[in-house]
C-alpha cells in the first residue's frame, strides 16, 4: 500500500524514496530496519541470485522502497541484483528468482488515473512463462490501481485475474487500516510457506496495507484469503472514492497464492508494502515489516523465498 495522488498527475521521486503528490502524505524508507536472522538459509553471498525488475518503471526497487526487503534477503545469503533489461531468455538466465514489484507502463508513470496500460510486451510475457516452466521462480507483486492493470496480462498467463482497484475493510476508505490474515480466522492458509523450515518459522498472522484482491483458477494454493466485511473499490482517479465508485464484495478472494508451473514455481501477492519497511506522514507511522501489527511479515517474506528456492517442499 502506498498513498497515491488525488490529482491526475503527480511526480514520483523514486530516487529519494518519496511520493510527492501535492498534499498527499509522503512515505520514506525505514533505512534503520533490520531483522536478526538467526538461521540464514545460505552463507552470506552464496545463495541464489534474485533478479529485481527495475526495467519497467517499478515503484519498488532494490535500493528504493524495497531496500529493506533486499537487505533482508542478503542477510539470508541471497544475491540481490537489479535487472534493468527487457525480459528475454538471455536476461532471465542471469538468475534463479525474478522479483517484479509494482511495474508501471510508461504512460502511467506520472498519471495514475484511467486508462491504465500494460507494463510488459507479449514477447516479455512469453519469455517469463517459458523461463518459469523450465524451472525459474517468479515472485509477482502488484499493489492497488494502477499496478494491477500494468501486470494483468502477465498474471493472466498463469491463470490469475488481477483487479485494478483498492481492497479495503468496509467502512474504512480513509484512513485505510491494515488487514490482518491469520490462522485463527482462516485468512492465512496452511502451506509450506506458512509452516517454514522449523517451528520458530511458523507463521500465525500476516498484515497487508490496502493493495488489490484477485481471483485465480487451475492448480494453485491460497495463502492470503479475504474474510467478511472486505470490498474492492474501483475509482477512476486513484484514492478518490465517492457514492458512484463501483464496489464489489471480496470475501473468499485472494491477496496471496503459490503455484507450481511446469518445472518452476510462482508466488503472487496483491500488496507490496507488506514486504517493505517505511514511514508514512509527518508522524512517521511505520508501514510494512516495521509495523507493530506485522511482527511476522519479515519471516513470511523469507519463507516465500525459501519456497521459491526449493528449500521448502
From TrEMBL:
<feature type="signal peptide">
    <location>
        <begin position="1"/>
        <end position="22"/>
    </location>
</feature>
<protein>
    <submittedName>
        <fullName>DUF4350 domain-containing protein</fullName>
    </submittedName>
</protein>
<dbReference type="InterPro" id="IPR029062">
    <property type="entry name" value="Class_I_gatase-like"/>
</dbReference>
<keyword id="KW-0732">Signal</keyword>
